[in-house]
UniProtKB/TrEMBL annotation:
Keywords: Membrane, Transmembrane, Transmembrane helix. The chain crosses the membrane at residues 12-34, 71-93, 100-126, 146-168. It comes from the Bacteria. This is Uncharacterized protein.
Amino acid sequence: MAKKKSGSKVGLIALLVLVVMLVLAIVGICIDWINTTVTVLGNSTTEGTKLSELFDTFDGLDTELAGSFKAMASFAILTVILAGATTVLAGICKVLGWKLFRFILVIVAIVCVVCGVVSIITSFTFCDKLGGGSIGDLFSGENAPAAGAWLTAIGGVLAGLAGVFAAVKN
């Protein structure tokens, strides 16, 4: 009987971790996704751009850069959706304990991990395609993934890992 209680607590902790990681991934979508740093005569200024602002910028364009943006945004949104699905499936497994849902949970959780990793990779690729440059010491510009890209990727990867753990421990 004590073993059952211990397993129950572990499953609840895994479910709590899943909820926190889902919130982390959602927050990542809502905050700055790309940081643009511009240096003019040694003075640097960094400006963040949210994913929603990037949607407004690249809406309707059909260029290589727009394609790179669409891939990045697709994996970011898919990561959040899969983190949510992992959380819901883990809750169903916790309450009902059906083996079919455990199997589905493991599959969705693994895909969530993969999408989280691909999300940050496509963010770096998009930043590289956005480009940067410099004119000697007078001017330089650089783009890099901001906190939102990292939070979404980390939230997705850890949600997937917690989902696999929840399936194994239920």
